[in-house]
Specification:
The chain is of the alpha/beta class and about 270 residues long. The chain has 8 helices and 7 strands, in the order βαβαβαβαβαβαααβ. The protein has helices at about 20-30, 40-55, 70-85, 110-140, 155-175, 195-210, 210-220, 230-240; strands spanning about 10-15, 35-40, 60-65, 90, 140-145, 180-190, 255.
Length: about 270
């Protein structure tokens, strides 16, 4: 299937690792020019060079901090200037979850709350506000906001709130910008195996006195098919959602988790 992505230009926040990096790889393979952003300049440049060599595509490193207004403004201006346009935005920049136990309800501090919300929810909004005028000018665009299944279950107070907020943001974006040919979708990955997985597995195994194989199973294989979901698996779905062929999917949520046991969501 031709996803009609050749000649498109994409901006990916949080693109130096994990799901963002995997999305950049697949978009470049499909012929899109890609700008990846993150705060760590050296990791960003290394990722861009790696992906360019691997895909023979165009992958540009553009440093930026989604928690800061001025940084986001400069980041988007630079990406648009170098790419000539921005057709696709994939928001991935967020404080990583699952690396440490989340604070309980009575333990949540102002720092826990505002830092997380500022990077993910307000950060996504910042980038959208800067990118949307470019898409409006082109009369087309796709915005994918990567959230997470904490939106649909309790157990992490701030994680649930931030991810539900991303869903609300996405729907508002879709409703307001649809008349300009711009679509927006939220993607909820389940626990996804990325570069950070080895460390997480080792810490879980040590903490619970179990083997690393058992720890991996408990963290990543709780879906209906009992299979590990990788960053590449999530990226394949996101890249389709970036495509003009995915225009009927708009303002809604797509879950990439292999099927959540028992839950009925409607």
């Amino acid at each position: 299937m031709d996803l009609e992505l050749k000649g498109k230009a994409a901006l990916i926040s949080g693109g130096s690792r994990g799901i963002g990096k995997a999305v950049a790889r697949e978009l470049a393979r499909e012929g899109a020019a890609v700008a990846i952003t993150a705060r760590g300049v050296e990791a960003l440049r290394a990722t861009a060079a790696e992906l360019e060599a691997e895909t023979a595509g165009r992958v540009l490193p553009v440093s930026g901090d989604t928690s800061d207004d001025d940084s986001v403004r400069t980041m988007v201006q630079e990406a648009a200037s170098q790419l000539g346009r921005i057709d696709i935005l994939v928001n991935c920049a967020a404080t990583a979850g699952g690396l440490t136990p989340p604070p309980k309800l009575l333990e949540v501090t102002n720092e826990d709350f505002f830092a997380d919300m500022n990077v993910k929810v307000r950060g996504y909004l910042r980038v959208i506000q800067q990118v949307a005028p470019h898409m409006i000018e082109n009369h087309w665009g796709r915005i994918i906001n990567v959230s997470g299944l904490a939106a649909r279950q309790a157990g992490t107070v701030v994680g649930s709130m931030r991810n539900v907020s991303v869903v609300a943001l996405t729907k508002n974006v879709a409703d307001e910008l649809g008349k300009h040919g711009i679509g927006a979708v939220t993607v909820h990955p389940a626990m996804t195996l990325t570069e950070a997985g080895a460390g997480l597995i080792a810490r879980r195994a040590a903490a619970e006195g179990i083997s690393e194989e058992e720890a991996k199973k408990r963290i990543y294989e709780g879906n209906l098919q009992g299979r590990v979901i990788t960053a590449a698996d999530v990226a394949n779905v996101i890249v389709f959602l970036c495509s003009p062929k995915a225009f009927p999917i708009n303002g809604d949520v797509v879950v990439v988790g292999g099927g959540v046991p028992r839950a009925i969501y409607y």
